Fold these 2 entries.
Entry 1:
Amino acid sequence: DIERARRFEEIAEELKKRDAVIVAHYYTDPDIQALAEATGGCVSDSLEMARFGRDHAASTLLVAGVKFMGETSKILSPEKTVLMPTLEATCSLDLGCPVDEFTAFCDQHPDHTVVVYANTSAAVKARADWVVTSSVAVDIVEHLDSLGEKIIWAPDQHLGRYIQKKTGADMLLWDGSCIVHEEFRARGLEQMKALYPDAAILVHPESPESVIALADAVGSTSQLIKAAQTLPQKRMIVATDRGIFYKMQQAAPDKILIEAPTAGEGATCRSCAHCPWMAMNSLDNILAVLRNGDQEIHVDPALALRAKVPLDRMLDFAK
Ligand code: 13P
Ligand code: SF4
């Protein structure tokens, strides 16, 4: 529509003025994803967001997602200005893993290799040996297990349990969870599968174990999009944030995509298949931050140097 096109133009102009590029996650509003694509930015999973931001020549990154994504970009590119539509957008996994408690836990197990999910603060990353995203978590833990290493895993317990089961690695799990994915329920999914017996079930591994057990494909957002393209089934039941439907439908236009049921069935759950923090990003606050530059990510430089070590390790491993 005309209003949207006008907004895109205004934002494109501000991006140019600031020498900025948009780095967006699949869970953001479809308008934001379309804007990122139309202006030479990227829409991707958290691993590719980190890589794209690091490698892009722009001097300013506008990270549309949640805070840990902006922090990761800043840690990898301290010389760049990193802006976010709002610094208020956080993540229940990050919130559920305060650095003091986490450090104390690690200190109690000094013989363990510390592996943390990207969905953590810069301070938690700085205490880690490895950072991983869901795209590479299984491969990295498999690698560490083959070296005989014992692992501390934080913060997502469901992803941790999934990896533990898949690799057989010796892992101590933190008890965090994602408020979006923990709402998916096996019972509802089974009922839906009974309605559509020919459907494939796609599940993000932040979901509960009983939901993962029903999946035809388990993976990161980018891996689920690939599964929608490559699995033979016409119908897909998708257990992850509904923001993914925009790119998934683009990638697999002939597939029928259905949202997996959540505990509250739209009535009571806090976050029925859509992350409340991802939803804080909008075209309005993107334009506002490009104009006034106030939502800037800062990471203490000494902390950032330490957090960069396990992040670089991941990016080198995933090459
Ligand atoms: P990925 O895009 O890396 O699968 O991460 C999902 C996520 O929870 C981001 O918030
Ligand atoms: Fe965090 Fe879950 Fe939101 Fe991702 S979807 S940002 S893991 S709360």
Entry 2:
Amino acid sequence: IAPAATTMLPPEGLPRLNAAMQQCRTCPIGALATQAVAGEGPLAPRLMFVGEQPGDQEDLRGRPFVGPAGQLLERAFAEAGIVREEVYLTNAVRHFKYDLRGKHRIHKTPSQQEALACLHWLREEIALVRPRALVALGATAARSLLGRSVVVRAERGTWLARGDGLQVLVTLHPSALLRLPVSQQARAFEEFVTDLRRAAA
Ligand code: URA
């Protein structure tokens, strides 16, 4: 009997990567999620935005940044003159990690080991997508992109170099803005937009 690989050639590039990602069970998160969420956007974009992991909506719909954090990100994009369809959006971790409370699935931050187990997908995606620069949304993405822990408040808003020559701008995760007391949200949003403007400049 011929092995399947001799009769079914794997698709190349991003479709191959995204199909392989669906099978990933390297860490325990995958078994509980609906699906792995691949990145989306054009090839060779000016910017690739990297979030932490899909949320509840993203897990169900199979697309990055389509829930509340995505809506806030799109509002900030509009203020910063960034067009969502012209940038690439992806995540450091590809499956939704959550705690079940009654009927609700509550976001749980992925561990460093889980983010590390997912890193090869991101590396391969960056190589295939070839962005001109990277934006890390929050500490998980910053760690995955820079290979070290990052205190977002201390390093946000400036370009940081990676070993491969790509530049990374670190900023807050939009979910962090949503968690702030209402009285602090307007100012934090303006600061977020300032970081995005810098990334887009
Ligand atoms: N938060 C993320 O980090 N990524 C998403 O895709 C959605 C919410």
